[in-house]
Specification:
Distance between the termini of chain A: 55 Å
Strand content of chain A: over 45%
Structural class of chain A: mainly beta
Distance between the termini of chain B: 41 Å
Number of domains of chain B: 4
Oligomer: heterodimer
Shape of chain A: elongated
Radius of gyration of chain B: 24 Å
Number of strands of chain B: 22
Number of helices of chain B: 16
Shape of chain B: globular
CATH class of the largest domain in chain B: Alpha Beta
Strand order of the largest sheet of chain A: 1-2-3-4-5-6-7-8
Radius of gyration of chain A: 23 Å
Number of domains of chain A: 2
Helix content of chain A: 10-25%
Helix content of chain B: 25-40%
Largest sheet of chain B: 8 strands, antiparallel
Strand order of the largest sheet of chain B: 13-12-9-10-11-14-21-19
CATH topology of the largest domain in chain B: D-amino Acid Aminotransferase, Chain A, domain 1
Number of strands of chain A: 16
CATH superfamily of the largest domain in chain B: ATP-grasp fold, B domain
Structural class of chain B: alpha+beta
Number of helices of chain A: 2
Strand content of chain B: 15-25%
Chain lengths: ~170, ~500
């Protein structure tokens, strides 16, 4: 079986072969032999020549969450990865750049107007979640082209709150 | 004793209070907002009533609604937990008028200590050392600017109704003051409904040392020793412990007696915490009284063996304190880590969403106070605290090792938490040697990044992902096959008949 995964935006191709509880995995030029026993839907025992570890797993349709060595690893499935690549292409096109919501929350204050020039690090908006305020600042100099929300609106992570044209200002300076 | 108590809170503290009530044989009424319909506190209470929409002002801060639910469900007392209405003296007063017992101080004492400035005046008059700064609140920039000049930068801006770091800002120079004031006032307004602020001299590199005090309605006041809460991020405590390595017996006695004096001066009853800042010269300053059960109360419970929530309920019911000062002892060492829904890799921004699987660590002297369960949705409307992990050890080192192990075995899958960061702090040599102050995180973790995963770990993780995928597709096949054979699917609608 061939599988495509990514961890922290890095892609990996795997091939897996299974015989009873024994697995042979090829990841790039590495080959690993393991024994795995699924104890419950969320727990498995994983053994190799160095010993046995108890590992916890949970998954959704597009992600696998793994607790291993005291850390949570998030493994993305291929479908999700394709979508992400498509989106990031869109974001990078042209000189306009979007200002995206860093987290889900409520837009408390919009401190700029459309067509207003902004300085690097200037406060653009204040987003509130969990009773704490977080300000979103301009990454560099530019002109605000479009504001997609108004104060009081709810936003989700990654939603484009406003567009800023960085090119114009850069050409002038 | 009460027959029924309403818990005007949510999350881990609501669960904690309900469990105390269960042990005392008291029935409970849980209130909940629309997003908390299946929250743990709602699952385990005897009675549950919807208060309103998710925003706190429409639910957990809605005094009229909560009072009417208390009457409607015949609850004789209300436990406010911490946050929300816990330190709202109008709410305490309203309870008194309505003939409902508020489990906490009387409204007069609460108003006095909750008025941070009023209590500064009272304590100053009683010769209790306070931090130099303003004795009046303001909402006017020009006035604030003049006061800041008088005190001298850096100054600390505080919400006069505040607590828990909300509305707090350190201001290093005059040009930062306006933004700090506006942000602080907005945050204060949204958290407490009161936007006024004041300034204090900012004391550099202090330790935060607080004393747990408990007072009954019969004039008995006992302190249950200190907690050191110097490990803070954005003025939010994240790790607390008892005892503090900074106190010797003499200083502990002196601070404990001062804390009791603060409580007596305020006419305060029930459980309260007297916060002090301890500077490098071991001079201490009264900061404020927290008129509630504290987030970090389990630390005190571990070292003294006293159940603070049960004591709160008993005192509210008019009982005498069952111990005197000389009866209480501070034994061993306890540490608490607060688990927040924050992403340590993304500037500690809130991490929201579904927790697909949770398993909390267990073992001797390991305690988790939590409202979590597998499948819970973490909402943006409330405080990011998910749970608290508390351990006890024979000494500080023993407790640190136990905490390290417990953090490694705290499994929360689906959203990010700052557990990896807590582990890094616990393992830091300066923390291990007890060399802490409120600047600890800024000084030692200015730009913390998760350690890079090595190739071996990545390979194993990928292997686990692959095996999980394989097993899942297999399972589906097997379940599909089974379901074809099971009679339950073919007999049509069925019901259980009583015999």
């Amino acid at each position: 079986m061939e599988l495509e995964f990514s961890i922290a935006q890095k892609n990996y191709s795997l091939s897996v072969q299974k015989k009873n509880e024994h697995y042979q995995l090829k990841i790039g030029d590495r080959t690993i032999e393991l024994q795995a026993i699924k104890v419950t839907p969320h727990w498995m025992m994983l053994s190799d020549q160095n010993g046995t570890q108890r590992i916890c797993v949970a998954s959704t349709t597009d992600k696998i969450f793994i607790h291993f060595n005291g850390h949570q690893y998030v493994v993305d499935h291929p479908e999700q990865k394709e979508k992400a690549a498509y989106q990031s292409d869109e974001h990078l096109s042209g000189a306009d750049a979007g200002i995206y919501a860093p987290m889900p929350g409520k837009i408390l204050k919009i401190m700029v107007q459309e067509n207003q020039p902004v300085e690097a690090k200037q406060n653009l908006i204040i987003v509130e979640a969990m009773k704490m305020e977080h300000s979103v600042r301009a990454p560099k100099k530019g002109i605000v082209k479009k504001i997609n929300f108004k104060e009081g609106d709810l936003v989700d992570t990654g939603q484009e709150i406003m567009e800023i044209d960085f090119q114009v200002e850069n050409e002038k300076t | 004793m009460f027959k029924k108590i309403l818990i005007a809170n949510r999350g881990e503290i609501a669960v904690r209070v309900i469990k105390a009530c269960q042990e005392l044989g008291i029935k409970t009424t849980a209130v909940y907002s629309e997003t908390d319909k299946t929250a743990l506190h709602v699952q385990i209470a005897d009675e549950t009533v919807l208060i309103g929409a998710p925003p706190p002002l429409e639910s957990y801060l809605n005094i009229d609604k909560i009072i009417s639910i208390a009457h409607q469900t015949t609850a004789e007392a209300i436990h406010p937990g911490y946050g929300f209405l816990a330190e709202n003296s109008n709410f305490a007063e309203r309870c008194e008028k309505e003939g409902i017992v508020f489990i906490g101080p009387n409204s007069k004492a609460m108003a006095l200590v909750g008025d941070k400035l009023g209590s500064r005046q009272t304590m100053s008059a009683a010769k209790i050392p306070i931090i130099p700064g303003m004795q009046q609140k303001v909402a006017d920039f020009e006035q604030l600017r003049i006061e800041a000049e008088k005190i001298g930068y850096p100054v600390m801006l505080k919400a006069s109704a505040g607590g828990g770091g909300k509305g707090m800002r350190i201001v290093y120079s005059a040009d930062e003051l306006k933004e700090a004031m506006e942000g602080g006032m907005r945050e204060a307004k949204s958290a407490f409904g009161d936007e006024s602020v004041y300034l204090e001299k900012f004391i550099e590199q202090p330790r935060h040392v607080e004393f747990q005090v408990i007072a009954d309605h019969h004039g008995n006041v006992v302190h249950l020793f200190e907690r050191e809460c110097s490990i803070q991020r954005r003025h939010q405590k994240i790790i607390e412990e008892s005892p503090s390595v900074a106190l010797d017996d003499e200083l502990r006695l002196k601070m404990g007696e001062t804390a009791k004096r603060v409580i007596r001066e305020s006419g305060y009853t029930n459980a309260g915490t007297v916060e002090f800042l301890l500077d490098k010269n071991k001079d201490f300053y009264f900061l404020e009284v927290n008129a509630r059960i504290q987030v970090e109360h389990p630390v005190t419970e571990f070292v003294t063996g006293i159940d603070l929530v049960k004591q709160q309920i008993r005192i509210a019911a008019g009982e005498l304190l069952p111990f005197r000062q000389e009866d209480v002892q501070q034994k061993g060492h306890a540490i608490e880590c607060r688990i927040y829904a924050e992403d340590p890799e993304n500037n500690f921004l809130p991490s929201l969403g579904t927790i697909h699987f949770v398993q909390e660590p267990t073992g001797p002297w390991v305690r988790t106070d939590s409202g979590l369960y597998s499948g819970i949705e973490v909402s943006m409307y409330y405080d990011p605290i998910l749970s608290k992990l508390i351990v006890w050890g024979q000494d500080r080192n023993d407790a640190i090792q136990r905490m390290k192990n417990a953090l490694e075995n705290y499994i929360i899958l689906g959203i990010k938490t700052q557990i990896p960061f807590l582990k890094a702090v616990i393992e830091h040599p300066e923390f291990m040697s007890g060399n802490t102050n409120t600047n600890f995180i800024k000084d030692h973790f200015p730009d913390w990044k998760m350690p890079e995963f090595n190739q071996d770990e990545i390979s194993k993780v990928l292997a686990v992902a692959a095996i999980h995928e394989l097993a899942n597709s297999k399972n589906e096949l097997r379940i599909a096959k089974q379901s074809h054979l099971t009679p339950w699917n073919t007999i049509g609608q069925w019901e259980i008949l009583s015999v």
